[in-house]
Automatic annotation (TrEMBL):
Name the record gives this protein: DUF1540 domain-containing protein
Species: Clostridium fessum
Domain of life: Bacteria
Residue ranges of every copy of the DUF1540 domain listed in the record: 5-42, 63-101
Pfam families: DUF1540
């Protein structure tokens, strides 16, 4: 499992810079740079302070990855020990990115 730091405070799954899902999807099938990727599991936090109360924050989770040009992509799974998802107060998934993407 990959250690995930998520700074996307605009996502309802974000709590304490962790994700409240046990798996996420990084999109960016033809990505050449990290700005070409995004978190496909992003859901906008609406109503200000609402957050996902159904699950506790996970610091390690499964990361499915469509960014086939990334050195960490192994059979559509992220093999990196540690990744970061950035995007601050994003309102749509395209405003997020996998900051750990490295082109093959």
């Amino acid at each position: 499992m990959t250690k995930l730091d998520c700074s996307v405070t605009g996502c309802m799954h974000n709590a304490e810079n962790c994700c409240c899902k046990n798996t996420i999807l990084v999109e960016g099938k033809t990505a050449q740079d990290k700005c070409d990727t995004c978190c496909g599991s992003f859901d906008e936090k609406k109503g200000g302070t609402f957050r996902n109360l159904f699950k506790t924050p996970e610091s390690r989770l499964e990361v499915e990855c469509e960014a086939t040009n990334c050195v960490y992509n192994t059979d559509r799974r992220c093999s990196a020990e540690h990744i970061g998802i950035t995007g601050g107060n994003a309102t749509v998934s395209m405003q997020t990115e996998c900051s750990s993407f490295q082109k093959r």
